[in-house]
Amino acid sequence: MEKSVKMMDGYPFLSYQRPQVTASDLLKRSADFYQSMDERRTVRDFSDQPIPKEVIDNLIRTASSAPSGAHKQPWTFCVVSNPEIKKQIRNEAEKEEHESYNGRMSEEWLQDLRPLQTDWHKPFLETAPYLIVVFKKVFDLSEEGEKKTNYYVTESVGLACGFLLAAIHHAGLVALTHTPSPMNFLAKVLNRPENERPFLLIPVGYAAENTYVPDLKRKPLDQVAVYY
Predict the structure, then answer these.
(1) pLDDT band at 180 (very low <50, low <70, confident <90, very high)
(2) pTM over cut 0.90
(3) Pairing outcome for strands 139-141 and 130-137
(4) Does the domain formed by 40-208 have CATH 3.40.109.10?
(5) What is the DSSP annotation of 148-217?
(6) Contacts of 120 (CB under 8 A, 6+ apart)
């Protein structure tokens, strides 16, 4: 069906409708999606099995459909598959992680990480076929180099990353949210412009054949939702 266009204060608006879904279908759809997403896990053991680039393209398209402040879309998704660049990222990340696990982290933090059995070694940064490095644009630049304001940058990029993780899981792949701290080396390795700051490093791929994840429990609904 062709969409109608209405001008509002000089700006075009498209007619928008969602097909009405019955209450029973709403319940089924929401339950099915929950059951699928509840199977999502953070994975640290990746297969090196290749993935078509077109899949990554679609995942990023989905992430970019997230809402953003004033529709500025203040994000850049850098996709790394080059083995030499992945190796460089791993080397730099492990330097920072070694410092974190050997002095930067508090004892409480280390205790909280113990059930996850993580350490400063990050082989998945080379094994996973793709690394998606998400950068937030703290401001935009016009063609003339003039700074343009972006709004709610952190919130917007966080929403896009949530969409991306859901899309990765829905596609049948696994991911890890990796945040080596500090992450400034990523901007240097990938030669990003001055208006971009590293936000999240996400390895993407298939799970390795023999993969184990911590037996963790998510908080029940009554601990995360309050109804008024």
Answers:
(1) confident
(2) yes
(3) unpaired
(4) yes
(5) EE-BSHHHHHHHHHHHHHHHHHHHT-EE--B--SS-HHHHHHTT--TTEEEEEEEEEEPBPSS-------
(6) 94, 97, 98, 100, 101, 102
